């Protein structure tokens, strides 16, 4: 085992919650060797039985929901309601993928020849390397591990260095649910050490990664030498469009929830609000009033609306973007500063008079900062929304059904909400984005199965003679 260690620190207080071995390439090697061996049995366990383990896992998550929720408010910092939602997503995903154990549908199709049967089936790929971030410390591992396992793969999980305690509880419960220890293992450690070793390991044919765009590119390059399946879920610069006919009260509620929920630390956070000029003034004052009503504090406190940022580096990054916005000439309406004292708290921040090309309108901040961009028309709004390199989530508030449908068609994003903010995905629809948000794969829903399986096409000839396909059969006599 690695002798070096690292600490898990509570972002609301700075308290050390635990010390963990800092895994290195040798630890990854050992885990992968075990996972590879375990795969030979696991792939033969009937999928409904694997699914039953996920049902048990969902029940265990449910039984431990309060404990996990409380731990999440401490280790990751999000507020209770959101932490409970994070655990609930894992419960939902586990039930959903448990049911997949009795589906995992393939296809059958008629052959062009007589007495021949054809089908396609999903095959597991092998050892999956799952690399996860800290912002959904229970939900994201579930999004990755539940489909990977039900499909018959084994997994080595490299969780984020900020949330090792939650990852440990997550995997403990999987083992309690009956998933053999060799089938799911954790290697804690840093991205450039344990993470990269996993990505480069020749016996790990699938990497599923959620994190920053820069790391996603590094992962893709490192995985290229072995031509791995790489599933990436990267950043966002998501916009809410508010049209002149919107229900403004509803829009403000949606913006507050999507921009400041989880302190803006969600890849689907609304860090841009594109507003029709006819309602720009009114929306500003309503939004600022709502942002200033939010109470900051530790996530475990029932009174808290917004928790801390994850760590000091995150706080510094968010604050540096406030300076960028001011330098670019945007107007700071509220917030824009850290809170004095212990913990990594940053005030909900709203910039107005932002133009779509400014850096605060282009780059992912991952904090409680949102930028108001005034526009004159629907067309201008869509163009502004699409002017970023990312394409994860999008939203429009309008009562005009024609505009709503045009937005659904024209917004360049993997997800579009109508009359809701940019957050709130459910587990049974695909989750992911276009452009620099990913590389064409999706998490959740049926789409997730594509990451964790290979299609196999099977031809069964029961004619008793050699029938030849893929040759020119045109001269075959027409059937009578
Ligand atoms: P964030 O900014 O959200 O921390 P990162 O992309 O840095 O996003 O981290 C997401 C996950 O990727 C973490 O588990 C981290 O340890 C891991 N990671 C970071 N760098 C690498 C790397 N070079 N190779 C593999 N994993 C990495």
Tell me about this structure.
The strands form 5 sheets. Strands 12-13-14-11-10-16-17 form a 7-stranded mixed β-sheet, with helices on both faces. The chain has 14 helices and 19 strands. The protein has helices spanning about 25-40, 45-65, 65-75, 80-100, 140-150, 165-175, 190-200, 215-225, 250-260, 275-295, 310-330, 380-385, 400-410, 450; strands spanning about 5-10, 15-20, 105-110, 115-125, 125-130, 155-160, 185, 205-210, 230-235, 240, 270-275, 330-335, 350, 370-375, 390, 395, 415-420, 435, 455-460. The chain is globular. Strand 16 (about 395), helix 13 (about 400-410) and strand 17 (about 415-420) form a beta-alpha-beta unit. The longest helix has 21 residues, at about 80-100. It has 2 domains: about 5-235 and about 440-460, Aldehyde Dehydrogenase, Chain A, domain 1, CATH 3.40.605.10; about 240-420, Aldehyde Dehydrogenase, Chain A, domain 2 (3-Layer(aba) Sandwich), CATH 3.40.309. Bound molecules: adenosine-5'-diphosphate (ADP). Adenosine-5'-diphosphate binds near residues 160, 212 and 215. The site of adenosine-5'-diphosphate has 17 residues, from helix 7 and helix 8.
Spatial arrangement of strands, main beta sheet: 12-13-14-11-10-16-17
- Could you say which small molecules are bound to this protein? adenosine-5'-diphosphate
Mean pLDDT: 96
Q: Write down the Rg.
A: 24 Å
Percent helix range: 25-40%
Total domain count = 2
């Amino acid at each position: 085992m690695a002798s070096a260690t690292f600490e898990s620190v509570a972002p609301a207080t700075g308290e050390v919650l635990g010390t963990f071995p800092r895994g290195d390439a040798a630890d990854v090697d050992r885990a992968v060797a075990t996972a590879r061996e375990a795969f030979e049995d696991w792939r033969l366990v009937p999928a409904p039985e694997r699914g039953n383990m996920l049902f048990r896992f969902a029940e265990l998550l449910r039984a431990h929901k309060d404990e996990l929720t409380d731990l999440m408010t401490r280790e990751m910092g999000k507020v209770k309601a959101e932490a409970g939602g994070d655990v609930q997503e894992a419960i939902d995903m586990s039930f959903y993928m448990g049911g997949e154990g009795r589906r995992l549908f393939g296809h059958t199709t008629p052959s062009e020849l007589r007495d021949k049967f054809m089908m396609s089936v999903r095959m597991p790929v092998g050892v999956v390397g799952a690399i996860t971030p800290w912002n959904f410390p229970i939900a994201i591992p579930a999004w990755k591990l539940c489909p990977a396992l039900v499909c018959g793969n084994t997994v080595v999980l490299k969780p984020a260095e900020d949330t090792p305690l939650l990852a440990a509880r997550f995997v403990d419960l999987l083992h309690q649910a009956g998933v053999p220890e060799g089938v799911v293992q954790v290697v804690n450690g840093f991205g450039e050490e344990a993470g990269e070793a996993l990505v480069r390991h020749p016996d790990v044919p699938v990497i599923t990664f959620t994190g920053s765009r820069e790391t996603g590119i590094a992962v893709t390059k490192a995985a290229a030498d072995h031509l791995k399946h790489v599933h990436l879920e990267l950043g966002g610069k998501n916009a809410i469009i508010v049209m002149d006919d919107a229900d403004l009260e509803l829009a403000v509620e949606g913006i507050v929830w999507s921009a400041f929920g989880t302190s803006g630390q969600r890849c689907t956070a609304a860090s841009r609000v594109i507003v029709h000029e006819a309602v720009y003034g009114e929306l500003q004052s309503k939004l600022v009033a709502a942002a200033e009503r939010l109470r900051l504090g530790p996530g475990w406190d029932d009174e808290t609306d917004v928790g801390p940022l994850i760590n000091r580096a995150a706080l510094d990054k968010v604050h540096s973007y406030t300076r960028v916005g001011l330098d670019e000439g945007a107007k700071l309406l509220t917030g824009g500063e850290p809170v004095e004292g212990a913990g990594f708290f940053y005030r909900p921040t709203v910039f107005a008079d932002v133009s779509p090309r400014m850096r605060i309108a282009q780059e992912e901040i991952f904090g409680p900062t949102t930028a108001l961009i005034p526009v004159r028309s629907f067309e201008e709004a869509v163009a502004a929304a699409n002017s970023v390199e990312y394409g994860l989530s999008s939203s429009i508030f309008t009562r005009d059904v024609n505009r709503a449908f045009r937005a659904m068609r024209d917004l360049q994003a993997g997800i579009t909400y109508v009359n809701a903010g940019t957050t709130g995905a459910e587990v049974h629809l695909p989750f992911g984005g276009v452009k620099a948000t990913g590389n064409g794969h999706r998490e959740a829903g049926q789409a997730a199965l594509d990451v964790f399986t290979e299609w196999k096409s099977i031809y069964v000839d029961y004619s008793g003679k050699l029938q030849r396909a893929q040759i020119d059969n045109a001269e075959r006599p027409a059937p009578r």
